Amino acid sequence: xxxxxxxxxxxxxxxxxxxxxxxxxxxxxxxxxxxxxxxxxxxxxxxxxxxxxxxxxxxxxxxxxxxxxxxxxxxxxxxxxxxxxxxxxxxxxxxxxxxxxxxxxxxxxxxxxxxxxxxxxxxxxxxxxxxxxxxxxxxxxxxxxxxxxxxxxxxxxxxxxxxxxxxxxxxxxxxxxxxxxxxxxxxxxxxxxxxxxxxxxx
Length: 202
Hints:
Helix content is 24%, strand content 15%.
């Protein structure tokens, strides 16, 4: 990942396994307020409630330094935005091409099981090749943050962080924060609305 993706794009603030030198730069998590959920709630199929995205867990040195691909990513918004800018520009950024444009277009093709309740999230998701897709505006759907363009691709993170690319507008957005929100995230809605007003991205 470092040599094939990050370094060519000039990205130096994405970590899966944070080195000790970077610990002082990692923001302390502000835990989401507690909520009562049944023990068979869909999110618990991926991560048990005793672990969760909490400072008690992810503030630990050994957890930060571990390689946990599904939940151990640490990044700045600027770094994520550069990656998604490459996707928004059809696989190239600042003269560096990482992917053929035709391959990037396939990322927006919905999977056959899209718009059905997801096994982990428990809500309908519109998903392509590794990314959530825009165009799913159901109120409970986290993917609505990506917007109404069905060709937009992105992915949410824990607590309301999110990044996406709109290839029709050559627009990339990344929002990261340390406060763990519970859905629905009205603050995130307000940010998307401001972006839509500024760039004409619905």
